[in-house]
Design a protein that fits this description.
The protein is mainly α. It is built from 6 helices and 2 strands, in the order αβαααααβ. Helix 2 runs antiparallel to helix 3, helix 4 packs antiparallel against helix 5 and helix 5 runs antiparallel to helix 6. It is globular.
């Protein structure tokens, strides 16, 4: 099941990239009606991109650890990289956008929930918790842009 999910994500990513490239070449860029945070090209924007890439790398690492039965290690990564810390809570609020802040806090709390669920070593429940984390990514990226 995990391999199917990872394969599906990869295929979707590749098809979206190909579609975007085709649209760019044809000058058919789709309208982007997401809400701007007003940080594109700023130091805050660069920092945010770095954080999101770190989140994605953490999810990839967690999936790999789950695949090898290393749930305790996966839990540690979820806590450290995805969980809600004082620093992450403050960072979510630094964008001066209440919806973004709330979405960020919910995302990081889902990271904490994932960490706790991984400790049970229950694969099915861990997958449900991981899905909630990924749904947070999808929701945020479909709502906001830099």
């Amino acid at each position: 099941m995990l391999k199917t999910i990872v394969s599906s994500i990869l295929v979707l990513s590749l098809s979206l990239s190909a579609e975007t490239l085709h649209m760019h070449k044809m000058d058919m860029t789709p309208d982007d009606d997401r809400q701007s945070l007003g940080i594109k090209g700023t130091p805050q924007g660069v920092h945010q991109l770095s954080n999101m890439r770190e989140h994605l790398a953490a999810i990839s690492e967690i999936v790999g650890l789950m695949n090898t039965g290393k749930y305790d290690e996966a839990s540690t990564i979820a806590t450290e990289k995805l969980g809600l810390t004082l620093e992450k809570n403050s960072m979510c609020g630094s964008f001066k956008n209440q919806s973004f802040e709330q979405m960020g806090v919910v995302f990081h709390k889902s990271g904490d929930n994932l960490a706790q669920t991984l400790k049970t070593k229950d694969h099915a429940k861990s997958m449900v918790a991981l899905e909630k984390v990924l749904n947070g990514c999808v929701l945020c990226h479909s709502t906001f842009k830099q």
